Structures are given as C-alpha cells and as structure tokens.
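In the design runs reported in the main text, the only information available to the sequence generator was the tokenized backbone. The following block is the verbatim input for one such run; it is reproduced so that readers can re-run the procedure and compare outputs position by position.
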C-alpha cells in the first residue's frame, strides 16, 4: 500500500499525524479535564442522623404559643417494671420498629364489659430511641402526683373520687398505714360520717347525693362519670351495705332519674363513655330521652355561668361528639352544632393563653394570669382537660398545646411539696394522663395493665349501714312533698294577693267617680 503513495501524498499524511499528536499533548497539558466518576471511600464512617428542633418562630407562631425550652431531666417512673430476661436487643427492636407500622390510635378507647384482669404480666412495649423531652416531663409529673397520698380515715368521698378520675387503677390510699388500691377500697362499701358512698334505689343504685360541700357527689352521676374515665367495666361490683350493685345498675338508674330540672353534664359525660351514641330510653317520668337530647340540653347551658368555667360541660360535649364520630363518618344536625361549639371554645382558650403556657384564670370570660399556683393549676388544668378531649389527633403536637402541657407538668413538679386543692389538681393530672394516652397509647395501656396486676394490701371494709337507702328515700320523698306543698302555697298566696290587689284597684276606681 505504501508503494502506491506518491512522495507528496506521503509527506501530507506524515505532517497530519505529527500535528494531531502535538495537539493532543497540548490539550492534555493545558486543557480542562472531562467529568469524572465519584469513587466512594469505603473506609469513611457513615453519617449520623441529626435531630433538628424547629422553633415556634420558624412556624410563625404567635408569641403566646411559643414552644418553651425543656431543660428538666425527669426520672424514670417507678411503675415501669423491666425484666432482664424479657429485654430484646437493640437490633431486634430496631428491625421490628422498621417493619411494623403502628396505626394511628383511637383517641378514646371503649370500656371493656368484663372486670376480670389478666394475671399475666404484660410485656413492655418497645421504647423508641428518640424520646420527646415533654414526654419525660409528663411522666415525672404523674409519678410525683402519686406521692400525694390521701387517707381513708381523713379525706372525703369527693376528694378521693377525683383521685380515681385522674390516676385510675394506679391510684392508692393510706388505710391503717398501708397502701391499698382506691378502686378496691371504694368497692367494699365504705361510709363517711355515718353515710355510705353508694345507695340502692328502685332502679339500681347511685352515688350518695350532695349533703355538704366537698363531701359526696357535687353533681348527679359525677362518681359514675369518674368511673367511666377510669375504664371501670360494666360488671364491676360495689357494696352498698344492703346489696351489691354494678356499674350497669348505676347506668340504669341514671337513665330513669334524668330530667331537665337537674344538671345533666355528668350524666352525658358518663353515658358517652359507656353507651352508644344512638341509645334511647324512657325515664321514670315517662319522658323520651336519647344521647342526642342530652347533647341538646347541654348546649343550652352557658359555659361562663357554669361550674369551673363550663369546662366540664364542654368536656362532656366533646366526649359525646367523639362517641358519635367513632361510628359515623360525617357530623350532622345536633352533633355538628356541638362539634362547632367545642371547636369555638377551644379557640377561645388558645386566644387567651398566657406567655408561660397557662390559660386564663377567668376561663372563657377574658384573659387573666394567676400568680397563685393553686388557682393557676386549677384553671389551666380544667381548660387543658377539655382541650385534650376536644382536639383531633393531628393537633396535639401544636406549640400552644405543648406549652400548656409543659406548664401543668412543671407546676406539679416544682410545687410537689406545697398543698394543692384536690379538685383542680386532679383535673390537671387527668389532662396529662389523657395526653399520654393519646400520644403514647401502647405505653399508657401497658401502665394500666401493670397497675391492675400490681399487688397491694387488702382493704379493710367498713361496717355496712343496713337500711340506710330506704330511710334516705323516705326522707327524699318527704322533702320533695314538702317542697311541692310550699310551691303550691306560694302559688296560692301570689294568686290571692293578685286577686286582692285587683279588687282594691277596682274599688278605688269605682269610688273615684264620687270624689
């Protein structure tokens, strides 16, 4: 092939090859290099995931709803019993957490029909690696509150029943210098100042009605509502001295005695925990009632004119709406109106929240800050208890809610050695318990089962007061008859006065003609 090339063509080819070689070397020395593949360094350590805390300013939250700094290290609650044999390795726990997706819990679990607890020790739920500091604070506040022990020989049924509302099956009392479970002791049929806690009626049984301030039930069916919050089952037995009644008997009596002349707040509260939303019945006055009618009657009550700022009535409405929403996907009619009122007053509370997270000490009447810890714990605790029942699950992590939870938990811890009024304090504790039940349902359920299986001293039952219920019913009937007679006398007196005034006026008119 080379023999066929002419000298001129050969020279041109050689020159082209030399020029191309020189051009390539120049580009390699002075030109920009092309893209290269990134080669990973296998010896380098993997990066760690960092937790970023988003402040309230980043979310453009209002000043009153700023998320506080959590700097309190809380102890682990003593109620948690860990068994080394049952512990799992961190790898197994992590793999199980990754594989299993925990569904969103129902905010308000139902109450079991059976009172027979399982004697098997519950297995502790997997604890996440990253623990919210607010959760630690809530656990410590509840654990500290357990140390405020009441005595069966000193404190009233009203005070002790509020403790059952807040601490449920974990609540204990002192009896003869021994710790006993409060629910077990109340079930034995105790008495206070010669009067039993519970009495039998024609339709079942009920808590002893009001006799003096802070002694027995301050409102009809208040004790029944407290038992509903504690999850006491329908077949739970209570001794009244003459016979044994159950929670179902108390519900049957509440249905029979309900009326518009008395407060129905706690009846609605209890029924929303025990009965379906479409329950209907006829009272002893032959009046037709239903859950929806109870809601309508409750909505006629003005919160600012009710006890504790109307928070109990709003809680009962929120609980009833939640009972309806668990079965029906869409709110209609009375239920929609009740839901709108609940949301309205939740926003009222938020708009009047103080800088430190506490709510107004005037409840919904206007903004006010309480420097007295007793008043602050009571007003903020009552309001937060209602909010815990009113808000949907996706709003529990909002800064203003966390700020209120932080305020209550901090006050209960910092003032643990200072005497606090039982009513407001226990409602505040109940707000934290509901918060834990909704944000950590598995952990809360484990603590409840653990409390039921924990052994305490056997309570010593009091001497039964035989025949008290019959005497009480006779006294009530006599009092009602006297009241009815007094009412009739007043009506007749007013009618006679009106008739006499009319006759005198007519006589003056007749004689005025001759003046």
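Verbatim output:
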């Amino acid at each position: 092939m080379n023999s066929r090339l002419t000298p001129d063509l050969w020279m041109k080819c050689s020159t082209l090859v030399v020029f191309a070689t020189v051009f390539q070397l120049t580009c390699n020395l002075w030109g920009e290099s092309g893209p290269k593949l990134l080669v990973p360094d296998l010896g380098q350590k993997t990066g760690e995931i960092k937790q970023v805390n988003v402040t309230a300013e980043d979310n453009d939250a209002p000043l009153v709803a700023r998320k506080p700094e959590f700097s309190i290290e809380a102890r682990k609650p003593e109620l948690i019993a860990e068994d080394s044999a049952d512990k799992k390795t961190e790898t197994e726990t992590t793999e199980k957490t990754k594989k299993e997706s925990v569904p969103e819990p129902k905010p308000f679990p139902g109450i079991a029909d059976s009172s027979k607890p399982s004697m098997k020790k519950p297995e502790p739920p997997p604890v996440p690696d990253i623990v919210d500091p607010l959760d630690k604070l809530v656990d410590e506040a509840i654990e500290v509150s357990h140390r405020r022990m009441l005595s069966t020989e000193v404190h009233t049924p009203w005070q002790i029943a509020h403790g059952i509302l807040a601490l449920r099956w974990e609540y204990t009392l002192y009896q003869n210098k021994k710790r006993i479970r409060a629910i077990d002791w109340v079930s034995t049929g105790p008495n206070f100042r010669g009067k039993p806690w519970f009495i039998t009626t024609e339709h079942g049984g009920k808590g002893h009605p009001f006799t003096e301030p802070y002694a027995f039930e301050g409102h009809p069916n208040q004790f029944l509502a407290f038992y509903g919050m504690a999850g006491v089952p329908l077949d739970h037995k209570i001794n009244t001295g003459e016979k044994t009644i159950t929670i179902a008997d108390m519900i049957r009596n509440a249905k029979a005695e309900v009326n518009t002349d008395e407060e129905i707040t706690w009846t609605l509260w209890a029924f929303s925990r025990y009965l379906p939303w479409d329950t209907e019945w006829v009272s002893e006055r032959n009046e037709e009632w239903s859950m929806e009618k109870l809601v309508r009657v409750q909505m006629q009550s003005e919160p600012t004119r009710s006890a504790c700022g109307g928070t109990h009535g709003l809680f009962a409405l929120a609980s009833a709406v939640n009972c309806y929403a668990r079965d029906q996907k869409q709110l209609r009619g009375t239920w929609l109106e009740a839901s709108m009122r609940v949301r309205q007053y939740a926003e009222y509370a938020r708009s009047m929240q103080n800088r430190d997270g506490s709510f107004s000490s005037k409840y919904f009447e206007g903004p006010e800050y309480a420097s007295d810890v007793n008043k602050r714990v009571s007003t903020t605790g009552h309001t937060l208890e209602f909010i815990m029942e009113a808000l949907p699950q996706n709003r529990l992590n909002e800064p203003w809610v966390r700020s209120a939870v932080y305020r209550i938990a901090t006050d209960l811890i910092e003032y643990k050695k200072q005497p606090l009024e039982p009513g407001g304090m226990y409602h505040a504790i109940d707000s934290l318990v509901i918060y834990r039940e909704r944000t950590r349902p598995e952990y809360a359920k484990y603590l409840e089962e653990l409390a039921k299986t924990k052994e305490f001293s056997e309570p010593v039952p009091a001497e039964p007061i035989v025949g008290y219920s019959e005497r009480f019913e006779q006294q009530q009937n006599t009092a009602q008859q006297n009241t009815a007679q007094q009412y009739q006398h007043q009506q007749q007196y007013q009618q006679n006065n009106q008739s006499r005034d009319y006759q005198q006026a007519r006589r003056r008119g007749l004689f005025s003609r001759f003046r």
